[in-house]
Write a structure and sequence with these properties.
Elements lengths: L1 E19 L2 E9 L7 H13 L5 H4 L12 H14 L2 E11 L6 H15 L6 E6 L5 H4 L3 E12 L3
Parallel strand pairs: 3-4
Antiparallel strand pairs: 1-2, 1-5, 3-5
Length: about 160
């Protein structure tokens, strides 16, 4: 068994749509970023890469590389899952905490769990999504953006 942690944060960008965990959140500003700015997918990707000792998301998908401009972050996550499979590693579960004042995460958590579970090949039962506020403190509390923490557990594939 191997454990990895991931973190990502982005400021809001009212000119973009908000994607979190592969789900579009209507009525909320999007997030800045080279790709689609999906901070949940980015944190999960980093947690998986960390667990596999494979670096971070920026080393695999450099933000200066035009191939990844506006990329679907769930596609990037899928590429990392394929890398794990090549190394005969499998995802056991992921636990995600989304920190923001708005939007409310609870109503969208089920859709995020399903979408991430699909990409990971685990099903939604192995994916936890929680929303927390920052109680009005700091840049997140001021409503300027979102931060996400993720933990992933991976293990060797059964042979």
């Amino acid at each position: 068994m191997r454990v990895g942690t991931g973190y990502d944060s982005h400021r809001f960008d009212p000119d973009r749509k908000l994607m979190l965990g592969g789900v579009e959140i209507p009525g909320a500003p999007g997030l800045t970023g080279h790709s689609d700015g999906d901070a949940v997918a980015h944190a999960v990707t980093d947690a998986l890469l960390g667990a596999a000792a494979e670096g971070d998301i920026g080393s695999h998908f450099p933000p200066g590389d035009p191939r990844w401009r506006d990329a679907d972050s769930m596609d990037l996550l899928g590429r990392v899952v394929a890398l794990l499979r090549q190394r005969r590693l499998r995802v056991i579960n992921v636990d995600v905490t989304v920190i923001c004042e708005t939007p409310r995460i609870g109503p969208h958590a089920g859709g995020m769990r399903a979408r991430i579970g699909e990409v990971l090949g685990t099903g939604r039962e192995a994916v936890s999504i929680k929303g927390k506020t920052n109680e009005g403190m700091g840049w997140i509390g001021a409503g300027d953006g979102i931060a996400v923490h993720a933990v992933a557990l991976i293990g060797k594939e059964d042979t």
